[in-house]
Specification:
Shape: globular
Number of domains: 2
Radius of gyration: 20 Å
Number of strands: 12
CATH architecture of the largest domain: 3-Layer(aba) Sandwich
Strand content: 15-25%
CATH class of the largest domain: Alpha Beta
CATH topology of the largest domain: Rossmann fold
CATH superfamily of the largest domain: NAD(P)-binding Rossmann-like Domain
Structural class: alpha/beta
Order of helices and strands: EEEHEHEHHHEHEEHEEEHEHHHH
Length: 377
Amino acid sequence: MDDMFAFGDELGPLKIIHVQQPDIGLKAVLVVDNVATGPSIGGMRMAPDVTTAECVRLARAMTMKNAAAGLPHGGGKIVIQGDPKMPKANKAELLRCLASALRSEQDYVFAPDMGTDEQCMAWIRDEVGRVVGLPRELGGIPLDEIGATGWGLAHAAEVAAPFAGFELKGARVVVQGFGAVGKNAARFLVAKGAVLVGACDSRGTTHNPDGLDVEALVALKDAGQSVADYPDGTSGDCDAVIDIACDIWIPAARPDVIHDDNVERLDTKLFLQGANIPATATAEARLYDKGILYVPDFIANAGGVICAAMEYHGASESAAMASIGEKVTRNTRQVLERARAEGIPPRQAAEELALERVRTAMGYRRFGSFSMGPDFI
């Protein structure tokens, strides 16, 4: 992993903690970015190629996301180097060891992300208790099962579509990354009248301009197959998803999937960011120059962390879903109206909104000294 001292600005990070246990293969990084508004919430991401630099960027995205959503939480993130499909016993050992090592880090609340799920959070709870995204059986609100992030994305799309010059009903949607976020976003958008015309996962792409059956794709994934195995579509490699013409293109997987080398290939009207940091800064600037509207990640995909925060403070599932719809709708409209009125990119408008809230909170506190336990309401 890279040099931890290469990062930092006026907001943070407050802490960068490397955790290693060579005998079991544990190698992880926790970044607590900023806790001026409250203890940080951010998911645990497991992938073979994660880095400290990626973790720092993701933690900052969580600071912005939580601030924009008006949550009493700062931003943090954990990345773990490893195969998320490793045997369950090995995964449990790694995550339990990591949780134990971070037992005293009260500035961070564990949550699920790519490569971890509700069962992983149950293991964390058993070790330290400071966790959200738990299974229902343990009193949690299972974010992936209810599709919290996808629910928020559907609300963001509903607001953004008129700004991009089209109606959501009949809009053609492409989802890059047909996992927990992508499949649920597709479900909710199709329920609102949109048409899924393309999808991909780590093994390939499927495309049908007349529409794909979302539930059939979900069934394929549940059976251990790829969306590329869908019988009524044109199959291609993972990269082929970028070339599918659509109205809404949703990245819902890894960071930086859109970059200088492929941004010109996108043929869409709305780039709805389901993943965190899905495009490089220069690629995003190019989208803006081309007149392609985008809704920044920490505005569009805030549903998961809103749900997590609601769970942390004891809310019901129905209250969490209502809050997601309300907050994402309001913030998407606020950002896009500000961007249009001031003639600035949506990310600049979103960052101004979030930074105003973070800096105000920082003004109330001695930065770096704030910590609060899980009994905070």
